[in-house]
């Protein structure tokens, strides 16, 4: 299925790779506790856990897509052949916790020593800035997948690194800088990524 941006440019998933490369990556060694799950999988399970226990109501935002071409190979089947993103996405998750609106982006990197800022878009920075301006909580949850470390970074701290890049500075945030400005999250069982208890430190 072809998916395009509002300006007509073709959307190419970042993880899309030739079949032979996918076979090579399949051998990647994941820890038993993670079992190859993505950060999104882990956060979805965590948010379901929070919802069931009544701790918070947090959901993954749906991506607005407009379908423009559908083919019907049979009466009982429909195949989407072309679609467009209606508008740029903002952040991955939002919801309500403890009477507070929260909004955050979840990102993974295989880099062991830094987080590339190209993984974030300017409209996402602007969105989180607006959330903070209206007294909401905005932050990022970053996973360094190669070393299996997780961090929650408040937007106010992350915005400094973004502005540094926009002023001609480095185009990434070092692991040391993330350790100094964020809080490391230790993966558990139930929930997997227990980030809510740390939000009080950002208020």
Helices and strands, with pairings:
Elements: E1 2-4, H1 19-25, H2 39-53, E2 57-60, E3 65-74, E4 77-85, E5 93-97, E6 100-109, E7 114-116, H3 122-133, E8 137-144, E9 149-154, H4 155-166, E10 172-174, H5 175-181, E11 183-185
Parallel strand pairs: 1-4, 6-8
Antiparallel strand pairs: 2-5, 3-4, 5-6, 7-10, 8-9, 9-11
Helix pairs in contact: 3-4
Question: If you had to describe this structure to a student in words, what would you say it looks like?
Answer:
With 203 residues, this protein is an alpha+beta fold. The chain is 26% helix and 32% strand. A six-stranded mixed beta sheet has the order 2-5-6-8-9-11. A three-stranded mixed beta sheet has the order 1-4-3, with no helix packed on it. The chain starts with a strand and ends in an 18-residue tail after the last strand. The model is unreliable at 22-35 (pLDDT under 50).
Strand order of the largest sheet: 2-5-6-8-9-11
Number of separate helices: 5
Structural class: alpha+beta
List low-confidence stretches.
22-35
* Global shape: globular
Tell me the major beta sheet.
6 strands, mixed
User: For the CA atoms, what is the radius of gyration?
Assistant: 19 Å
Beta fraction = 25-35%
Q: Helix amount, in percent?
A: 25-40%
Compressed to H and E, one letter per element, the order equals EHHEEEEEEHEEHEHE
Tell how many strands the DSSP assignment holds: 11
Q: End-to-end distance, in Å? A: 43 Å
Mean pLDDT: 82
Main location: cytoplasm
Keywords: Cytoplasm, DNA damage, DNA recombination, DNA repair, Endonuclease, Hydrolase, Magnesium, Metal-binding, Nuclease
Catalytic activity: Endonucleolytic cleavage at a junction such as a reciprocal single-stranded crossover between two homologous DNA duplexes (Holliday junction)
InterPro entries: Resolv_RecU, Restrct_endonuc-II-like, tRNA_endonuc-like_dom_sf
